[in-house]
Design goal:
This protein is mostly beta strands. The protein has a single domain, classed as Neuraminidase (6 Propeller), CATH 2.120.10.30. It has three helices and 25 strands. The strands form six sheets. Strands 18, 19, 20, 21 and 22 form a five-stranded antiparallel beta sheet that branches. A four-stranded antiparallel beta sheet has the order 1-25-24-23. The chain has a four-stranded antiparallel beta sheet with strand order 2-3-4-5, with no helix packed on it. The longest helix is centred in the N-terminal third of the chain and has 27 residues. It starts with a helix and ends with a strand.
């Protein structure tokens, strides 16, 4: 009887310790300062992510992978009780979708016109099967498929127009707030640089021409600046930059040689930029990506930022954050799921005092 009592006491002590530890960790988490009512939005996919809000904030568009096809496709759904609807063709690599200003059209990039698409698909399926058998887990990488072009489709998935036809990768596009311009990434000059064009695909002009990758551009709410990611100083070592929409006053916002920072996005009404970043100083450790926020100031044409603020501290990947049109909600891609596969999450966002 005494041994049984001791066993029970040990179990109770262990439970109390775990409960207290969990409570302490919850209290120590910084997420509660910025995020309230965190909710998973997508499910039923192998993985999903890179979501964006419609202009009225009632719908989202995103990319997702299903069990029966190896490449991302583009889907849209209502935020409230929404059912996913595929917008892309169902074939090819697709990425970087974005709503038009009237919410009736969707911009996205796709390689579905690849003349050797069947071979590309077969190679990807074969590689995935080999990795499954060997148990190999590959780090995320995105190929700059030269057959990728940008398209505009309606909400039923009917392609209305092909916007780019140049040789090379044309993708990572997003409309300006007034809907008149599109900032995007292209390899048409040999390596990935930034470009701006009119919403109908005309008037293309090059914005950056640095060695390495410049990509993921978004025009500021007033249309005067572009925020983007670049590995110009060290290959694959992304950092956050801004540049004037006129090509002037390029400024690095992050320059930590031990970290990788990418996926920046503007707050729609306040002077803040959010992005995802991780410490890469230990080559043997898997980087833990979290969301980071910074307040900026523009004075006399110069762009400066204040102290970086950490928004998430989950022990997994939190990436590709975007604000709702009113700035009151944040949506991002996270592996905080039971399967540890990425899905979209939304939370009420609280700006710092």
């Amino acid at each position: 009887m005494n041994s049984l009592t001791k066993s029970h006491m040990a179990l109770i002590t262990a439970i109390l310790f775990l409960t207290l530890t969990s409570s302490a960790l919850a209290e120590d988490s910084i997420e509660g300062k910025f995020l309230k009512n965190t909710t998973q939005v997508t499910s039923g996919f192998v993985k999903a992510g890179e979501g964006y809000f419609s202009p009225d904030g009632t719908k989202i568009v995103y990319q997702a992978i299903t069990k029966d096809y190896p490449f991302y496709q583009i889907y849209t759904q209502a935020l409230k009780d929404g059912v996913p609807r595929r917008i892309s063709t169902g074939r090819g690599r697709t990425t970087c979708s974005y709503f038009s200003i009237d919410g009736k059209r969707i911009l996205f990039a796709s390689s579905h016109l690849d003349p050797k698409l069947a071979e590309t698909e077969a190679a990807a399926i074969k590689q995935a099967e080999e990795d499954r058998k060997s148990g190999k887990r590959r780090r995320y990488s995105w190929p700059f498929d030269p057959n990728t072009d940008m398209f505009v489709a309606d909400l039923q998935g009917n392609i209305l127009k092909r916007l780019t036809k140049e040789e090379g990768y044309d993708a990572e596009g997003a409309f300006s707030k007034d809907g008149k311009k599109i900032a995007f990434c292209s390899t048409r000059d040999g390596d990935p640089d930034l470009y701006i064009m009119n919403a109908d695909g005309s008037g293309v002009r090059q914005l950056t021409n640095a060695k390495g990758y410049d990509g993921g551009p978004f025009l500021s709410p007033n249309g005067k600046w572009v925020v983007f990611r670049s590995d110009r100083k060290e290959e694959h070592h992304l950092q956050i930059y801004v540049i004037g929409a006129d090509g002037k006053n390029e400024t690095a916002l992050t320059e930590n040689p031990n970290s990788v920072n990418w996926g920046p996005y503007w707050h729609p009404t306040k002077p803040y930029i959010i992005w995802s970043g991780a410490d890469h100083s230990n080559p043997r450790a898997r980087p833990n990506y979290d969301l980071w926020l910074v307040k900026y100031e523009i004075k006399d044409g110069k762009f400066t930022v204040g102290k970086q603020m950490r928004v998430t501290d989950f022990s997994g990947a939190d990436v590709l954050p975007v604000f709702s049109p009113d700035g009151k909600k944040l949506m991002w891609t996270s592996t905080r799921t039971d399967s540890h596969k990425s899905q979209l999450f939304i939370a009420d966002f609280v700006l710092p005092e």
